[in-house]
Recover the amino acids of this structure.
């Protein structure tokens, strides 16, 4: 007789980038950064719900695998350094 | 801004939130404020649904899915267990939406505050049941259209005011209660850190616009959140041991119509109805000393 | 006194309340205030248990037994039905104890207030789960012995303050909220009549000593209730559209020890513990302007 | 075939005096009124949880079928017109 050893798969989910796939496939427009206009204020980074902007010394880097194209970064950029463009 | 904000992202990209989701931004910012030494109990709701398509999850911290009504009760149990194991340095955080807080989970929250558990409760308030299709909650504001407060000849959206959950939790005697907004991330992060540094039950209520539910374009999410604060429709304050402190005072309040007119859920409102809402906002601002 | 008090008794003698029951007196007085044109929804609790041994009942008015958690929800349904039938002149009254109000029924009450039903909610507060054997509720006061807040070397009775339900309901924006005491029947009856005359959700919280649960002789029930008010341990006030009015101001407050020392549930308290309770009472009295 | 006609007994309880029987059988003492001392202030009547005191021109009348002998009336009488006596 075998005793029950718990469920055959882990009950905990794995922390993953892209837990819902390559979500940039949802978008119909994408942000394009003009680094010359960027003042490094980080507004685009702090307001991104998709965690799709990282910040380097040169300015913001968009993660084009997961950016859903919401347009918040372009709307909030005080220097107008980000524009939304058709794919 | 840099000293307040860490680079590390504890909420991973590639989650399934709608584009421009205020609630998801609230959670991302909250995790920046709190860091890795947390255990999260997360009620059913948008944030749970969008973050954890089993067997994967966007959460890079320990996270428990609670039922709709019992995020605060699960947090209570985890906190009591940590205390009885003598484990220190881990903060327990309950997270729920306005449905899971103001309606379905209010009683569990009330009980956890009364028992005095050492935990933070975060309500991300998008002012209706959003992931099930925009049904009104008690946190839906007066006049707002939802699918269960329709607009027609008889009804003009919700005919009752928004339930004031921060005031209700303050009336429980919680040592720290604050409102926050995703449009004011530094203010939000400071408040979460104060909550984390407070022993006992603390409550942070975050205003989180929802583009599909409130009917506006996703790029305007922060603009809508900011206008709520600038018009006095949403007031940023903290209540520390019973003393109120407004943390962001708009220099000159914008008319509430600037906020309402950005959103489709309010597009049916007549000038008279907007004037009535303005009157209520003015009265509340006076009462809280916003000016 | 006569103009306030009617002779007619709408609660019949021969019920099975303990001798000297404060909660039963509260209900008797409430029915004197409200008269026959009421429909009562009564949650599980002492008053339900002692009044209605099927197939007989002490209630001479229409009365519905609700579950522990949903007196306010049942009252909401009855009120909505009356409204939709166009029946006027009948007031719906929810009645529950402190367990059914501050703990188990808080969420239903909160929802009913938010929806704005036209009803009176009466909480008879005997400060613990009495008919099941004196288990602590969130309305049990600090320091009180109950069977679930025992007294020994480690624990000294309840280590958390009493949940302030009237303040919580006032924070909901209810148009009329009041506290009352069975020792002040005219004040109690006036407040119930004001509640009845108010359109919308109203809340009356009645302090009801319990001889077996609080450990004192039954003949002292009113004396104990009166000393709670005279010492400031229980403050009689009303909040009308957000404005506070203390209705009974003791000319010179009695020390809270006079109140505590009458009751066996507090007999373990040291002088230092009593001084701590006195400090809390003084602070609250100052805050509410009782002096 | 018979259709179900509801429960065989009424689901509503009857309003009754003595729903729990002759509750004065619980008591070990009873109030005795000295009408000469009574000032007709009605305190005994208003504070009785057992609804066991009615008030006439002459003063309080105790209902000895349902008075449980709690003693509140005697304790609260400002004129000391009520005393509790052994049965």
């Amino acid at each position: 007789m075998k005793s029950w050893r718990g469920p055959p798969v882990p009950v905990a989910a794995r922390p993953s980038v892209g837990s819902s796939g390559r979500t940039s496939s949802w978008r119909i427009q994408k942000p394009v950064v003009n680094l010359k206009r960027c003042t490094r204020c980080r507004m685009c980074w702090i307001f991104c719900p998709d965690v799709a902007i990282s910040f380097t010394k040169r300015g913001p880097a968009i993660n084009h695998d997961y950016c859903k194209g919401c347009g918040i970064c372009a709307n909030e950029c005080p220097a107008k350094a980000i524009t939304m463009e058709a794919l | 801004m840099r000293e307040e904000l860490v680079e590390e992202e504890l909420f991973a990209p590639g989650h399934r939130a709608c584009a421009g989701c205020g609630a998801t931004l609230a959670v991302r910012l909250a995790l920046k404020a709190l860091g890795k030494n947390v255990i999260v109990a997360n009620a059913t709701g948008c944030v749970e649904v969008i973050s954890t398509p089993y067997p994967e999850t966007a959460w890079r911290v320990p996270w428990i899915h609670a039922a709709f009504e019992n995020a605060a009760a699960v947090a209570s149990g985890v906190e009591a267990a940590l205390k009885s194991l003598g484990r220190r340095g881990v903060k327990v955080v309950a997270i729920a939406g306005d449905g899971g807080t103001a309606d379905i989970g209010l009683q569990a929250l009330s009980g956890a505050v009364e028992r005095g558990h050492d935990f933070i409760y975060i309500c991300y308030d998008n002012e209706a049941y959003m992931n099930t299709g925009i049904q009104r909650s008690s946190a839906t504001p007066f006049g707002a259209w939802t699918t269960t407060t329709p607009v027609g000849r008889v009804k003009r959206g919700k005919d009752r005011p928004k339930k004031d959950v921060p005031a209700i939790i303050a009336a429980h005697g919680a040592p720290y209660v604050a409102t926050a907004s995703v449009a004011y991330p530094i203010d939000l992060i400071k408040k979460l850190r104060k909550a984390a540094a407070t022993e006992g039950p603390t409550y942070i209520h975050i205003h989180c616009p929802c583009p599909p539910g409130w009917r506006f374009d996703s790029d305007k999410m922060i603009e809508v959140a900011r206008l709520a604060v600038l018009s006095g429709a949403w007031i940023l304050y903290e209540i520390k041991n019973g003393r109120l402190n407004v943390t962001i005072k708009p220099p000159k309040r914008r008319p509430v119509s600037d906020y309402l007119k950005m959103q489709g859920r309010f597009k049916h409102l007549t000038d008279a109805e907007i004037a009535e809402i303005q009157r209520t906002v003015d009265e509340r601002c006076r009462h809280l000393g916003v000016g």
In short: The beta strands of chain B are 38-42, 56-57, 63-65, 91-97, 119-125, 176-181, 202-207, 237-240, 243-246. Chain B has one domain: 22-288.
